[in-house]
Amino acid sequence: MATIHISEAEAARDFAGLMARVRSGAEVVIENEASAVAVVRPADPAPGRLLSEILAAAEARGSSAVLDGSFARDLEAVVASHPEPLENPWD
Questions:
Q1: How far is CA 26 from CA 15, 22, 34, 38, in A?
Q2: In a domain, 86, yes or no
């Protein structure tokens, strides 16, 4: 990851440019008279998998699950009945 050092004034003048650099993977250190004031870096990716990935894994394992109108209600009931974290059943 590239690290870019810029002044507070430059960060304020071109915030959109600063964010474009962060989105491209750079870490930006905002400084005031050579002292770091803030560090802006890309956020860690969200944990978990996309629904499309889960469905593909289920299909690969021969699952017959159907995402119909009652699926969300059923899933909410499962989550509500199990308050502690669940282990991933597909791994």
A1: 14, 5, 19, 14
A2: no
Are 35 and 57 within one domain? no
Residue carrying structure tokens 């050579």 = 34
Which SS3 state, helix, strand or coil, does residue 19 take? helix
Q: Distance between CA atoms of 71 and 73, rounded to whole angstroms?
A: 6
Q: Which tokens sit at 52?
A: 């499309």
Residue 90 lies in a domain: no
Output the pTM of the full model: 0.51
Phi then psi for 53, rounded to 5 degrees?
Answer: -70, -40
pLDDT in tens, 36-74: 999 999 988 777 888 788 878 888 888 877 777 787 788
Residue 53 has, within 13 A of its CA and on its CB side, a CA count of: 6
